[in-house]
Design brief:
There is one protein chain. By secondary structure, the protein is an all-alpha fold. The chain is 66% helix and 3% strand. The two termini are 33 Å apart.
């Protein structure tokens, strides 16, 4: 274990203190009918905190910052979702535990970038199979979800981590250029563009326009890091031309979007408060009603509105806990995205992967918050880690594990060997081998 023991213990205390403070607020200001419900919620949250602190010690990492931030935001989510219904939300609690397990799976599977690069054909194949599954589910049920008992899964969500891995690249890959007519191209870049086009077509065909900006953000960040890798010779004119093409496609998409999309783009929520503007108008009223400090956990009106726990969850939290606490929630998610960007990653592949994931988290959160506040058209996407939903939480946890994998330079461990041993190895290895 590489973590500083003092920092580790301090982080544990901070997380437990933060959750305890929220539970105390529920005790004094909450709307729970029975004290036992608060006790069950508190015990579940603290037990999960302690159990996770113990479990992560079995994983050899350079830092546990993302793990602490993840458990902090997830148990905040458990408290929020439980207060919405004024009793312990065991379904969301189980989903959060699965999310934590998924984060460690993402960490283990994405540590070795060489294995991921050598198996990209399987990543492409996985994306193709999931796109096919999305179409099959939609045409069979005219729905985007697969229901397993009380849990629902959205196949398109599982495309996100695979698409991130497809977008991730290394410097060596970008140097494998081939001449087609008068252009020097990288075959992998062409394949990635085709995958993005296929995702757009499937999402449009299945009427899932809300997820498109997230996929586009992943692709754009990945594409920029592909053409701007260190010492790359890429013409600025070409970059401007690519941006212009993207803008043109966006304008065409907006112009020829279906009628219901056009209506949502131009709807006046205050003149249509019982129609398409219902959720947004109620969300704005709830945010104003909550003020800075909220009306109290479980005392909000917005919990009676459809999709209060996912599509407009920012407004629901703002009403019950206050805008100040909602902004602290947003800040925690932003810190999760900032940590892997300010710390050095173990490879250019992991740098691209981390950047794409952070872009997805930020865009997805922005769509939910700005849509609820009527700053942009309402899309109905979820806030990572906060909104209810099995597939969304699972994928968010897995991608957080991918971020953790990029922060653990395991391949640098061998540099700590003695100088004498290194010299012997250097003398034993021919010079031509070092050049290679």
């Amino acid at each position: 274990m590489y973590a500083n023991p003092v920092a580790y213990i301090f982080s544990c205390i901070f997380v437990i203190f933060a959750h305890s403070a929220m539970l105390v607020n529920i005790w004094f200001n909450g709307n729970f009918s029975e004290t036992r419900d608060i006790a069950v919620l508190g015990a579940a949250v603290i037990i999960l905190d302690i159990a996770f602190f113990v479990v992560i010690l079995f994983f050899k990492q350079m830092s546990y910052v993302l793990d602490f931030l993840l458990i902090l935001i997830l148990n905040m989510s458990v408290i929020f979702q439980s207060c919405f219904i004024c009793k312990f939300n065991i379904k969301h609690y189980i989903t959060c535990i699965i999310c934590l397990a998924a984060s460690k799976c993402g960490y283990i599977l994405c540590k070795n970038h060489k294995i991921l690069q050598s198996n990209k054909k399987y990543i492409y194949g996985g994306i193709g199979l999931l796109l096919l599954l999305v179409l099959i589910v939609y045409f069979a049920k005219h729905d985007m979800w697969i229901r397993i008992g009380s849990f629902t899964l959205q196949p398109s969500e599982f495309i996100k981590p695979l698409f991130v891995l497809a977008c991730a690249t290394s410097i060596a890959d970008q140097q494998k250029k081939h001449k087609i007519l008068i252009f020097n191209v990288v075959y992998e870049n062409i394949a990635l563009f085709c995958i993005m086009a296929a995702i757009c077509l499937v999402q449009v065909k299945s009427h899932d326009y809300g997820s498109l900006p997230t996929f586009i953000s992943i692709y754009c960040v990945g594409f920029i890091l592909r053409i701007c890798y260190p010492k790359a010779k890429f013409s600025k004119k070409k970059l401007v031309a690519v941006i212009a093409i993207i803008v043109v496609f966006l304008l065409i998409g907006l112009k020829y979007a279906p009628e219901y999309v056009q209506h949502r783009l131009h709807v006046d929520i205050w003149s249509d408060k019982t129609g398409d503007g219902y959720q947004q108008s109620q969300a704005l009223i709830a945010i104003a009603n909550g003020g800075w400090f909220g009306v109290g956990p479980g005392r909000g009106y917005l919990s009676n509105i459809f999709a209060y726990d996912n599509d407009i969850v920012f407004a629901t939290v703002s009403e019950e806990w206050g805008l100040l606490f909602a902004l602290m929630m947003v800040l925690t998610i932003l810190i999760i995205t900032a940590v892997p960007l300010i710390n050095p990653t173990r490879s250019y592949y992991h740098a691209t992967m981390s950047s794409c994931i952070c872009a997805a988290f930020i865009v997805q959160m922005a769509l939910n918050i700005f849509g609820s506040c009527n700053l942009i058209p309402f899309t109905g996407v979820t806030i990572p880690f906060i909104s209810s939903g099995g597939s969304s939480l699972l994928v968010s946890g897995f991608m957080t594990g991918m971020l953790t994998a990029g922060q653990s330079p395991v391949f640098n461990e061998h540099r700590s060997k003695s100088k004498s041993k290194s010299k012997k190895q250097e003398e034993a290895v021919p010079a031509w081998r070092w050049k290679e």
